[in-house]
Amino acid sequence: MTKLKSFLVAIAFFALGTHHLFGQGCSDAGFCTINSFKPNSDDSAKVVNNRLKVGAFLGNADHSISAYGTYLEYNRQLNKKWGLDIKLTTLAQNGNGISTFGLSDIFVNANFKVNDRINLTLGSKIPLSDANEQLNNLPLPMDYQASLGTFDLIFGVSYEIKKIQWVVALQQPLTQNANQFMASDYPIDSDLRSFQSTNQFERAGDVLLRVSYPIHITSKLKLTPSILPIYHLTNDKYTDENNVTEEIVGSQGLTLNGNAYIDYEINSKNSIQLNLGMPFIVREARPDGLTRSFIANLEYSIRF
Questions:
Q1: Which has the higher per-residue pLDDT, 175 or 18?
Q2: What is the annotated signal peptide range for this record (predicted)?
Q3: Which residue in 1, 152, 242, 302 has the most C-beta neighbors within 10 A?
């Protein structure tokens, strides 16, 4: 355990100090940022029935694209065992002379506390976009879509032992989106010719493992390093110009991310959290548009 703690601390400082690789971001897809899958930021004595969060993030994406997002989240503790979370997200992208913005998804999750160490989460991601945003009557690639456009099932288990927090979770699409982007539809000199075609995109599910360890620097300030491997279960698919379904080779595989959470408690009801993340290992192909070399998220939370 001591070696694991030291490794997590090293991850935190690495995430704080560097930002040069590209990998799967998670804030956009969302399941690793829902409340029950994030490192626990509440001491048990301070947990109250209601909490409201508002946050914003920015990230450096692939193809010289910048991504910006906001969210509003409400957490309700129904009793000692059951809790509910609901979260609304937005996303904007800017790059290559193209700017887009839209509502992304609604996350609805139920949480069940088995005991003091084990929690279960079952929920869904409900898309607010069909992921077929267009420009000049031509579909844009996934990199410019506000949502993956899929209705997803989310399930996870969190476990704590000796203050080390473990989360294992699955996000599985139950439907697919309506994206019709075909790179060959664009002129030869267009930047979008280099993007992966995603016409009739079929996205696979993801499994994540998060390991985190909170370090109390002062009574009000806490640093929580976290390691976050995400495994994309199979290759994604698209339909080519000849109406043939093709696998996107290299889209299956592992992305390994590091996160550093910094929590500051303003008072017993109000707090601020800064979350910084970056990848160490990446998948060869990332057609879903979730590529991020670095992401920073700032969140304000009020309990009542």
A1: 175
A2: 1-23
A3: 152
